[in-house]
Amino acid sequence: MASRLSYPPQPSPSVPPERQYAKRPMPGKILIVDDDQPTRAGLAMLLAEAGYDAITASTVPSAIKLLIDEHPDLLLVDIRLDEYNGLHVVATRPEPIPAIVLTGFADPSIEADARRLGAEFLLKPVKPSVLMAVVQRLLSDARAGRSIPRRWPRKPVLQDVRVDIDDAAVRVLDVSYGGVCVEMRRSAGAGPPGEFRMIVPPADLPVPVEVVWSRRRDATTWVCGGAVSEENFTNWRTVVDLMA
């Protein structure tokens, strides 16, 4: 069962209501990604009351599209998003914006992965005052050019790479330890696959890749971003080092 945050926050009896958000932040656009509608609505209300522009998504594909189209200043994402993992959104974000991972499950490996991707990690339920303090700190640091989240740089591919997708001609655009971006041509009417395998010489090491976002260029051409599961991360680093 999904954990929920309690919103809107209740004013502290020791602080007058009009001073709860007296220090208005600089405007900022924040993308909230959570498949639980009450949680999305509560977070959006909290952020809007604090002076931020909140946009929401309930799925990973819709979140990736908003990251590309809306250029938010900060990402706030849950871990469990139906069949997806919220870390995929963090790993494939096209711009190095700050990120906060929210989850109701205290998992040290997930926390380590989130921090390796440069994201803050908070457990639900989290006090609104704590969340807002982290949001304000990350946005202030980003505007000042400090503590920009560590994100693996994209590398151009310098050699031929075989990509195993039925009925598709594929070109790898770039790779990073966080994922891969490919351009593929498929037959008319065929959409992008849900996953594919990359096979890199000379080791011919196959690595399964899950497609987490895609956009159409024309009737037969798609650009897709993919992420690698945790159990394949070691092999993926080897693949990236061989390709770049």
Using brief descriptors, characterize the structure shown.
244 residues; disordered N terminus; 2 domains; 27% helix; 6 helices; alpha/beta; Rossmann fold; Thrombin, subunit H; globular
Provide a descriptive summary of the structure in words.
- By secondary structure, the protein is an alpha/beta fold.
- It has 2 domains: 127 residues, 3-Layer(aba) Sandwich (Rossmann fold), CATH 3.40.50; 89 residues, predicted glycosyltransferase like domains (Thrombin, subunit H, Beta Barrel), CATH 2.40.10.220.
- The protein is built from 6 helices and 14 strands.
- It has a 7-stranded antiparallel β-sheet with strand order 8-10-11-14-13-12-9. Strands 2-1-3-6-7 form a 5-stranded parallel β-sheet, with helices on both faces. The chain has a two-stranded antiparallel sheet with strand order 4-5.
- Strand 6, helix 4 and strand 7 form a beta-alpha-beta unit.
- The longest helix has 16 residues.
Summarize it.
The protein has 244 residues and is α/β, with parallel strands linked by helices.
Terminal CA distance reads 42 Å
Number of strands: 14
Number of domains: 2
> Class of the largest domain, according to the CATH hierarchy?
Alpha Beta
Mean pLDDT: 77
**Proportion in β-strands:** 25-35%
Could you name the CATH homologous superfamily of the largest domain? Response regulator
**Estimated radius of gyration:** 20 Å
Relative helix content = 25-40%
Describe the main β-sheet briefly: 7 strands, antiparallel
Uncertain parts: 1-25
Overall structural class, as computed from helix and strand content, comes to alpha/beta
